[in-house]
Amino acid sequence: MELRREFVELGCREGANIRELCRRFGISAPTGYKWMKRHLAGEALGDKSRKPLGSPGQTPAAMEELVIAARHEHPAWGGRKIKRWLENRGEEDVPAASTITGMLRRHGLLSQPAGPSGRGWERFEREAPNELWQIDYKGWLQLAAGGRCHPLAMLDDHSRFNLLLEPCATETFAELRPLLERAFETYGLPVAILCDNGNPWGTSWGYFTACEAWLLRLGVEVLHGRPCHPQTQGKEERFNRTLNAEVLSRTTVWHDRSHCGREFSRWRGIYNHERPHEALGGDVPASRYEVSLRKMPSKPREAGEWYGGDDVVKKVQSKGNLRFRGVSWSIGEAMKGEEVALRQTGEERYEVYYCWKRLGAVDFAKHRSSGAKGYAPLEREVRPLLHEPRPPHGRGLKSANDVPEQV
């Protein structure tokens, strides 16, 4: 600016040679005459904006208002979700997702992008609805009225459809069972349920729980993720993040569980029927979900109904021990009072089944060689992990791929 000011001041003097000044200042003659013209007209010498006077391709103000309103209604949604949501509502000429992102950035509504992610986890998806459900509790919430709320969520692996979202007071099977019964009555039975290794569906010691025993009697396989690997339940973990971003973080005070239930129910409808899901190509979960053809039975089959005539049927004792051939084998206290079957697979080796599920094996030869007397742990079946699903098997099944049907 100082050089421009000097140029025009020298150029205005009497007898000044404009072209010679241009050569000395290192500018072209048209530029020099342009600055002289602006100076004589009283205009500023700074560069003028190159912004066009008109923008025929600019997004209409009404559409921009819709975008901003959608962002205020759903603060955790980005450009792609808002675009698909507006299209699903019948809006025409919705701008590109990148344009919507630019609008959000101009209005200061876009958070900073997340840092570089770590290793790329292996992704999976079951081929059809109800082949696998994922279930988990989210971290508890402190309630203003006293006590805690433990949000419980259950998703269908194929469609990401939320089957259950409840504000629980505890993380016990006594409270969980009626919730699962209601879900089974509404949506039918899945082939398998994936959960972690904590209560009420698992134990850190690997013993089967009362929850698992009940699910096995219904013909539902129970799969467990690897300990200390929450990414095994990646869809459930991602759902919890979405729940936190779109519901939990927007309310600073949760009064009681009724308050939580109302907000959970309202948002669950948005999640299943309105919110576009990027992993589904922008579709909503409800568009990919269908109820299961396996109906919830009025009464689960008893364990003894699964066993054959060659099985040795034993009742688990009060402390979770199985007494057989003078040796106590530890099964787990959740199995106390239940009947299990022992099927001979070798001269001194038996496999232990509960309903159609193989729990493990007892080996008397190995027990004697170890020098132990009177008590021995069960050689437990390795819990089936996510990538090693074991189909239900047992007497009366046509093939290993058959699933027990409930009449």
Structure described in brief:
It is elongated and about 125 Å long.
Distance between the termini: 89 Å
Largest sheet: 6 strands, mixed
Low-pLDDT parts are 114-121, 381-407
Number of helices: 11
In terms of DSSP E residues, the strand content is 15-25%
Pfam families: HTH_32 (PF13565), rve_3 (PF13683)
Region (Disordered): 375-407
Domain Integrase catalytic: 125-293
Protein name: IS481 family transposase
List the SSEs and their pairings.
Elements: H1 2-11, H2 18-25, H3 29-40, H4 61-73, H5 79-88, H6 97-106, E1 133-137, E2 141-142, E3 148-156, E4 162-168, H7 173-187, E5 192-195, H8 210-217, E6 221-224, H9 234-246, H10 257-273, E7 312-315, E8 321-324, E9 327-330, E10 339-344, E11 349-354, E12 357-363, H11 364-370, E13 375-377, E14 379-380
Parallel strand pairs: 1-5, 5-6, 9-13
Antiparallel strand pairs: 1-3, 2-3, 3-4, 7-10, 8-9, 10-11, 11-12, 12-14
Helix pairs in contact: 1-2, 1-3, 2-3, 5-6
